[in-house]
Each structure stands twice: as C-alpha cells, then as structure tokens.
Amino acid sequence: MYQAAQTPTTRAARPESQRGITLVETLVTTAIMAVAAGTTIPGMTALRTQHQLAQAAAEFETDVQHARSLAVAGNQSLRVTFDSHGGTSCYIIHTGSADDCHCAGDGPALCHDEGQALRTVPFVAGSAIALSANVRSIVFDPVKGTSTPTGTVRLVARDGRAVHQVINIMGRVRSCSPGKGMPGYKAC
Q1: Which of 16, 50, 72, 104 has the fewest CB atoms below 10 angstroms from its CB?
Q2: The pLDDT of residue 85
Q3: Closest CA to 94 of 116, 113, 75, 77
Q4: What pLDDT does 73 receive?
Q5: Which residues of the chain have pLDDT under 70?
Q6: Which of these, 150, 166, 181, lies nearest to 54 by C-alpha position?
Q7: Is the pTM of this model over 0.85?
C-alpha cells in the first residue's frame, strides 16, 4: 500500500504551538467579507427606505382617519393642511382656517387666530422622505363626515419610489404606488 508522506508544512504535522491563521488566510477572509458587505449594504439601505416610506404612508392614512373621527365626535370642523418652507414640508391637523397654521422646521406648527394644532408631522429637508400635495388644505365636515376638497398626497423617497394617497369625498384614503412601485401597493 502506498502512503503519502506528510510534510512538516501541513497543518496536521505542525507542532501545537504553531497552529493558527496565516496572513494569507486572514487576507482572503477579509476580502470575502468586504465583497459581501459591499453587496449587502446597498440592499439594506433600499429596504430601510422602503420601510420608512411605507411607515410614513400608514401614519398619514391613520392621521386622516383620526382627524375625520375627531371632527365628527367633537362636532367641529378640522383641517389637514399641507405646508412647505425651506425644503421642510409637513402636514398639520388643526382647527381654524387653512392659513392659520404653518410648519416651523422640525418642531410643532405655528398657529395664530383661531388655529390650534392638534398634530404636526414634519418631513425635514434632506430626510429620506418628502411630502407634497395637490391641495393646500382639506377640511372635514363635522355633520356629514365628508372632506372637501378631495386631494392627493405624495410621499416620495430619495430613490424615486413613491406612495400616493388619494383622499376621497368621504374622507377615505386609497393608496397606490407609481413608477418603480412599492411592494404591497397597487399601481397608480
């Protein structure tokens, strides 16, 4: 029978005190980890942005339904006003007229006259999500529970993905996603 002779450089033949990882093994492992991280990080960033966009859309939809419910329960007209200053945008749920409340950076809204802000949600300049609307303000009627006018709110991520939220006359919100699309949303 033929047996291969083991050389002193094989791992099995090394003395106990010389076992360990060589420089070449360390460099190869580091290179593999760098490649894996380089392909994983952009995917994780896209996933995080997708999550932030879906979360902002869900929060807006909940706030619209809450504003409608508060208007009916309190027998008082409430508004959702959309405002933008210096790249920062927000929506404000408030009493009073459409021009009574304005965004104030990333803090609470500034209101005057009869306006009283109940909730302010800012989208700070440079953040992952931006907000825009095709109407200045939507008012909820306390008697009928309807909203006037109807409107579309656009939540757009830096990578171009977006969720559009259409508020109908009954104050209900329908969500859809144009362009690249978002998983879980119908196409616009």
Answers
A1: 16
A2: 81
A3: 116
A4: 95
A5: 1-18, 37-43, 180
A6: 181
A7: no
CA–CA gap between residue 91 and residue 52 (Å, rounded): 17
Sign of CA dihedral 147, 77, 69, 80: positive
Compute the distance between CA of residue 66 and CA of residue 8 in angstroms, rounded to an integer: 76
What's the burial of 97, exposed, middle or buried (CB within 10 Å: 0-12/13-18/19+)?
A: middle
What per-residue confidence (pLDDT) applies to 3? 58
Give the integer Cα–Cα distance in Å for 24 and 10. Answer: 15
What are the chain's domains? 23-187 (3.55.40.10)
Question: Token digits for 106?
Answer: 């990333």
167, 151 Cβ separation under 8 angstroms: yes
